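JOB MANIFEST
job_type = single_chain_structure
chain_count = 1
residues = 273
[input]
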Amino acid sequence: MSKTAAAPPAVRHATLNVIPAGMTAAAGFLLFGLDLRWQGWVLLAAALGVAAALNRSLFRDLGLIALGILIMDAVPITTDISVGHMALMGSAMIAAVALPYLISRFLYREHAIRFPVLTGQKWSRLERWYLPAVVVIGYLLLPVYLIPSGVYENWPAANDAGSVARLFVGTNVLGIWDELFFICTVFTLLRRHVAEWQANILQAVVFTSFLWELGFHAWGPFLIYPFALVQGWIFARTKSLTYVVSVHLLFDFVLFLVLLHAHNRDLFPIFLY
């Protein structure tokens, strides 16, 4: 069974490590959540400076997280489903996951970042039941969140086959990327240096901040932050990218249907609004 790399024993739960780790997450919040660009860059640089003073491994891993954050900060993070924007943002998303992995694997000669797909471990009965439960949760929460708040208007109306297809691809690709970056990269690297619960709290901050910039405004953070925490917790227990992606895609499929319905109430009149 594929497992994430073990944390270096000397630094695994070092108390001071949480300071630069927290600063890195806070920088993500400034950049994505508050759109405070230079303040976020300064805080990110300070986090790396503190990490370098503590130990080399921490500096390397936070540097990989910072690299991914800066790559995404360099492009517009919007719900625009035009081909050009999807290609631009998609390229940045690929680089934000691929470059930290390649640097860790081939420059640092470590295998800290893994994407465990074929783990050989069967899903438990609880894990199997959780999948349809996610659909029910999405059905109950997403229309109540997106429609009365008007947040659905942050997504363009998909009125033809091409735009519907691009919206479907966009929501699904973004859901997969969220797990590759926030869970398999950010969470995995952080928990090599701080306690698992601390790493989960911090990755969820960056996760939520990114989706806020994408368009999940109003009370979206109260929905997204618990979701991010649960995804991190599930990944830590199952060590399965396949499972957390399955959960996310089921939730995003409901999101896709609600967005279509919100812009055209004659479509999928099965929701609460």
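[summary]
Residues 15-113+125-263 form one domain.
DSSP finds nine helices and no strands in the chain.
exit_status = 0
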